[in-house]
Amino acid sequence: MATKVKKSKRELNEMLQGYAFIAPAILVLLVFSVISVLFAIYLSFNKVDLFTGKYTWNNFSNYLNIFKDPRSLIALKNTALFALFVVPLQTIISLVMAYVLASRDVKGKKAFRLIYFLPTLTSSSALTIIFMFLFNINGPINDFLIGLGLYQSPINFLQEPQYALKVIMAMNIWSTVPYFMTIYLASLVDLPHSLYEAAEIDGANAFEKLRFITIPYLRPITTYVILTGIIGTFQMFDQAYIFSNGSGGPNNSTLTLSLLIYQNAFGQMPTMGFAAALAVVLAIIIFIVSRIAEKLNGGK
After folding, report:
1. Which of 28, 62, 135, 262 would bridge 277 by S-S if both were Cys, CB 3.0 to 4.6 A apart?
2. Which helix (H) or strand (E) holds 31?
3. Residue 168 Cα distances to 9, 20, 143, 253, 284, angstroms
4. Are 62 and 273 in contact, with CB atoms under 8 Å apart?
């Protein structure tokens, strides 16, 4: 009996010591995550006057105003289009590049991987400025297109609504593909080579090996890549902010939900309650779309 009491006391002491070690992390999580999220939800049901600090309960008015505000609908459309084009393309390109590099004896393969991975190490702010220079009306891209004879006069990519968001899409794909390609490469290292040998004996070509062996084997990694891409594209803010100088222009063509949240929270006439409602809606959309993508990719 005494032995059991000593054992239970020792287990209790070990448990308390464990909680003591993780207490700082739990405190940080509570303050900066759980409490912040709950406070944002509370704000979304209030009209907030930042100058007086007064909170006025207004039920679901902020949420209803989202669907009445034309700029909110435009931001939702831009964000959805951005995710719809960027996520599939960056996933497919990174998978194909990883497959080629892993299955072919390419000279300078390690050097290529290192050079191609460099954009991932560069801040998105710097990349945005570089792409703004490249696609400037007097930039290298226009010079190249005119030199090929495709256009007679330069295109104002940065100021024409039909091109502005596409430039940001191209930049996002170019900067994220190397990271996802590296993840795929790391997973392909563990893929049993005997599967490819057996497929070759059965007469499978490169495309069939990719379709029936590589893609099914990499399904968990693909799920991670898709979910990461969805979260990143729906939260896209800094690139649109720098590209449009915070306005979402030209003609709201680069206005995203994250940028609209920032404008309403910290603009000249801040509406913090409306911004909080937008943030809650954005979080719900990300959760729903992520779950749908996970289910479609064979997740539980």
Report:
1. 62
2. none
3. 60, 46, 20, 11, 24
4. yes
The helix/strand/coil state of 136 is coil
Fold of 61-296: MetI-like fold (1.10.3720)
H-helix segments, 104-218: 109-121, 124-134, 140-147, 161-189, 193-201, 206-209, 215-217
Per domain, the residue ranges of the chain are: 2-43, 61-296
Residues 227-260: pLDDT tens digits?
Answer: 999 999 999 999 999 999 888 988 999 999 999 9
For 52-94, what is each residue's pLDDT tens digit? 778 888 888 999 999 899 999 999 999 999 999 999 999 999 9
- Whose CA is closest to 209, among 221, 197, 227? 197
Question: Within 13 Å, how many C-alpha atoms sit on residue 264's CB side?
Answer: 26
What's the CA angle centered on 78, arms 75 and 79, to 5 degrees? Answer: 85
Map tokens 């049901």 to a residue: 45
pTM of the model: 0.85
Residue found under tokens 């290292």 = 189
